Amino acid sequence: MFTGIIEETGAARSIRRDGHSAVVTIGASKVLDDLKRGDSIAVNGVCLTVVSLSDGSFSADVMRETVERSNLRDLSAGDRVNLERAVPLNGRFGGHLVAGHIDGTGVIRGVRRDENAVWFTVRTSPAILRHVVEKGSVAMDGISLTVAGVSERDFSVSVIPHTARNTTLGKKRAGDTVNLENDCIGKYVEKLLGAPARRSGISKEFLVKYGFREGSACFGSTR
Predict the structure, then answer these.
(1) What is the distance of C-alpha 182 from the center of its chain?
(2) Closest CA to 9 of 159, 181, 163, 118
C-alpha cells in the first residue's frame, strides 16, 4: 500500500521487452536505502516487485496486464519516473490510500498556470470518470492529488509548485499519457452497494413473534 507522496524521481536505465511483458531497470538513490528483493515499489503509480538490486538501481518484472493498462508500455531509457516505497505501518499517511493497481490511463488535454499553481486537465474513459468526484482523491502517475473539477469527458487537478518540482508532473505537456488510479474506497463502496442483498431471515412475522410491536421501538415486551 502507498500514499501517493512521491519520494524521488528516478530514471529508466533499460527496458528489456519479451513479447508483451518486460523487465525494467530504474536508477534511483533515496528509495534504495532499505530496499530489498521482494519489496513493493510504485513506479509511476504502478506497484512492482523488486527482483534484483545493483549499484544505484533496481529491476522489476512488468507483466502483460500492467503493460497494457499503464503508460509503462511507452517507457524508454532515460525517461524520468515517480518512485515511492510501500508505506510502513508506523509511517506518516500524507496522501490517500493508493494500491498501485492502475485502473487505466488518461491524456493531458491542457496545462495552464494560475499564479503559483499549475492546472492539468485530463481526459479519460467513462469507466474511470464515474469514480472521480470533485474534492475527492485521484492518483496520477502515482501522485496523490485532489480533484478540482469534473466534467463528462475529463477532470482537472491543481498542482502546487512543490509537487511540480519534485515529480514528473512539472515536465508534462498536453498530449502526454498518465496513469490513473481511482480512490479504492469509492470502488469498494460501489461494489458493495451493487451487490445483491443477502437474505437475513428477518421478517415482520419474525419480529412480531419475538415481541416487536409495529410503531414501537420496544423489543421483548408486548405490554
Answers:
(1) 6
(2) 163
Mean pLDDT of 214-218: 52
* Beta bridge mates, 26: 12, 58
Cell of 174: 498536453
Q: Is the dihedral of CA 14, 175, 63, 139 positive or negative?
A: positive
E-state strands within 5-75: 8-18, 21-27, 40-43, 46-54, 57-62
Tell me which of 4-18, 77-91, 136-150, 185-199 is least confident: 185-199
Calculate the dihedral angle through the C-alpha atoms of 32, 36, 40, 46, rounding to the nearest 10 degrees: 50
CATH of domain 8-85: 2.40.30.20
Do 8-85 and 104-194 agree at the fold level? yes
CATH number of 104-194: 2.40.30.20
pLDDT for position 186: 87
pTM of the model: 0.84
| Under 8 Å between Cβ of 1 and 86 | yes
**What pLDDT digit, counting tens, does each position of 117-174 carry?**
999 999 999 999 999 999 999 999 999 999 999 999 999 999 999 999 999 999 999 9
**Residue ranges per structural domain of the chain:** 8-85, 104-194
